[in-house]
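Quick check before the chapter quiz. The format below is the same one you will see on the exam, so make sure you can read both the input and the output lines.
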Amino acid sequence: FNDNIMKEILEKISSYNLFNYLLPGTIFVFVLAKISPHNFIQKDLLIGAFLYYFIGLIISRVGSIIIEPLLKKWKFLIFADYSDYVIYSKKDEKIDILSETNNMYRTIIALILSLVLVKGFDWVTVKIGMNDTWQSIIVLTLLLALFLFSYRKQTDYITKRIKAHKENNNTQQSV
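Here is the expected output.
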């Protein structure tokens, strides 16, 4: 039963979701189990798939909300104007593929950073003798902040995309 459901889910999952959520989440769980006392490995494949996907989603958000802005601020990355991206990705299908690969690299960077952060958090909590309740409160608060900023960023992307379409339509109508 679980194998059939897993097969259906994997068939419907996009390559973006596979390489930016499920794969990083799975790698994170397995590496974390090797380098720390935390073990999120699931025996049930269905539960495991959803858990690893969610962990991968968190890792992806770390990349999007923390890593990308820092690299832009440090001028390590320079992005094209979003309205240009919208226009030219319609003309060149390869841009979407390159963007997906780009996001995968960002997520791998976030995966490595997340492992370092978890190890650092564990070390600090042991050093100061923080109890499990406070650890949980800190982690949940950080996750709340991460998803609040993710929600804002996604809303901004939607708004920029609509604006780019409006500008493109206005340009076409005036020609």
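If your answer matched, good. Residues 110 and 116 are 10 Å apart (CA to CA).
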